[in-house]
Design a protein that fits this description.
binds flavin-adenine dinucleotide; FAD/NAD(P)-binding domain; 504 residues; alpha/beta; 32% helix
């Protein structure tokens, strides 16, 4: 059986035509958050921490979590988007604090370093790569490289190690998380003007396995591959994470069968009884020192007007341009890569077992990014059926055109794409698959093309409007990762409270 679903693009597309009924209800509220992804939920948590409870959150979907949501079948939960959080940077105290609140960090050791709950860290074996017809440990191609490839890998990782600790004259890391903490060093920022591929060539790298590996990493975090992504972003993938919150530079990650929906679940409690789901916001404007918001209730099929003092738009800019006037000009600089996720329930994986099934399973030179095995993080030794989620990002030079083409294809087409790619490592996968759910995210994630992260469009989009409408979304960071969303939400609330103090 195959099912095809995705983010609700049909409801979203009504924002173009705006054929909504006139509002028949009105709500008055001091603070309103629009969007219940990690950015919006983190804002809810921050309001709570600041002792503010009179806020409301509107979400167009029937659930919270946005790109950190999950699905579930009778065998397992599985991610429908974000699936892991790397170990946080030691200086990111806000994040450490949150992880402590949620008992992901259980305490601190004698060196002052966090002790992570082992059951929430990836179980071994965590990663494998299908390379030269065999599975091998880790996702970096190793066995089967030429001596020159190996030398290039060593040189590359040495350079990344140097970037990881490098600081600018302002004593800030060249590459930090959240990104806004990074140094203003111009030489580093110039890396945002070229692609990662150009950087690779400029640095005299030639190895194909290294090229493929970096391409995989770029797609993993940005959707776009090495030829389209800014070199600053590409290097940030390796250098932004300081690997300093554990003693042994451990690169393991925090993950759960449902992926980062676990983290969204923790944050949801702050928006409990303050959330209206199935509410698509279609207009936001400042009028008489208030923000007037119109939303369509997709269940009751009526519109609601909300009058708020301050609003946080925790929605992406490709949506905001239809809600607030005069935002189209800079929004066209925001590029979003579509993604396809396919969750397969399989009886077997017809594996050759040269290295055992791991949490993350990557296939060298495949179209997609491989698959994660959801049940890897459960304590059950034997799984009757295995549930795996395959990831595919549509890296292309014309993302708009690609998006249009994607929606023309049917589920049979996608089924074949998924099988053909997985067959490289699992020739019998089709025979062993019982069920497949294909999930398409039309605007998946923000993709940092050159000149975007430090460009004008992003800066313009992030400016608040008349100290009334504030913005918080990962697309305003330029890269889409949990940490950025988490800080976007916190910063928006802090900015609102700060501006209110200055006003009074
Ligand atoms: C395939 C994929 C894999 C990923 N993997 C990882 C990963 O492993 N680790 C990681 O850290 N990050 C990952 N990410 C990045 C992920 O996007 C971020 O971690 C984070 O979830 C983004 O949160 P956000 O709140 O900024 O945005 P979103 O998740 O986009 O949230 C925006 C919310 O606003 C709602 N909304 C939009 N328009 C309206 C409207 N008009 N009215 C009301 N509500 C509206 C949406 O429904 C959504 O809930 C992945 C992303 C994708 C697409």
């Amino acid at each position: 059986m195959i099912r095809l679903s995705g983010t609700n693009h049909l409801l979203g597309h009504r924002l173009w035509i705006k054929d909504f009924p006139k509002p028949t209800e009105q709500i008055q509220i001091p603070y309103l958050i629009i969007g219940g992804g990690i950015s919006g939920l983190s804002a809810a948590r921050q309001f709570h921490r600041k002792g503010i409870s009179d806020f409301l959150l509107l979400e167009m979907a029937d659930h919270l979590g946005g790109n950190s949501s999950n699905g579930e079948n009778k065998h397992s939960k599985y991610p429908l988007g974000a699936h892991y959080l790397p170990l946080p940077n030691f200086e990111d105290k806000e994040l450490l604090h949150f992880l402590e609140e949620e008992k992901i960090i259980l305490g601190y050791n004698e060196k002052g370093l966090p002790v992570f709950d082992e059951l929430q860290l990836t179980f071994a074996p965590d990663e494998r790569l299908f390379y030269k017809n065999n599975w091998q440990e880790g996702v970096v191609p190793k066995e089967g490289n030429s001596a020159e490839d190996d030398r290039e890998f060593i040189r590359f990782f040495k350079e990344m190690d140097a970037f990881r600790i490098a600081k600018g004259a302002d004593q800030k890391y060249l590459f930090d998380i959240p990104i806004y903490l990074s140094s203003e060093d111009q030489n580093a920022r110039n890396l945002d003007k070229i692609t990662m591929q150009k950087w690779f060539e400029n640095n005299n790298f030639k190895s194909k396995p290294l090229f493929n590996y970096i391409d995989y990493c770029c797609k993993d975090d940005f959707g776009l591959g090495i030829e389209f992504v800014s070199a600053w972003a590409g290097i940030h993938y390796f250098a932004g994470r300081k690997q300093d919150s554990v003693a042994d530079k451990n690169e393991s990650v925090l993950t759960w069968p449902e992926g980062n929906a676990r983290l969204a679940g923790h944050l949801k409690k702050y928006a409990e009884k303050k959330t209206l789901k199935n509410h698509l916001v279609y207009e936001v404007k400042v009028e008489n020192n208030k923000v007037v918001v119109k939303a369509f209730d997709d269940v009751k099929k009526v519109s609601v007007q909300i009058i708020a003092d301050k609003v946080i738009m925790a929605t992406p800019q490709f949506v905001n341009q239809y809600l607030i006037k005069d935002r189209k000009a800079f929004t066209k600089e925001f590029h979003y890569t579509p993604w396809l996720l396919a969750t397969l329930t399989v009886n077997d994986l017809s594996d050759n077992f040269s290295f055992p099934l791991s949490w993350d399973n990557v296939i060298y030179d495949a179209k997609g990014l491989g698959y994660v095995y959801a049940q890897h993080q459960t304590l059950n030794q034997v799984q009757e059926k295995k549930v795996i989620t395959y990831y595919y990002s549509f890296s292309s030079p014309d993302l708009k055109k690609t998006r249009k083409e994607i929606y023309k294809k049917d589920k049979e087409y996608w089924k074949q794409v998924v099988f053909d790619d997985l067959k490289i490592a699992h020739p019998d996968i089709e025979e062993y698959t019982e069920e497949m759910e294909v999930f398409i995210l039309g605007h998946g994630m923000i993709s940092p093309v050159p000149d975007f992260i430090f460009g004008q469009a992003k800066e313009n989009a992030a400016k608040n409007i008349e100290n009334r409408i504030y913005f918080a979304h990962t697309d305003l960071s330029g890269i889409s990762i949990f940490e950025e969303a988490f800080h976007q939400g916190i910063n928006a609330v802090n900015q609102i409270l700060n501006d209110a103090t200055l006003d009074s």
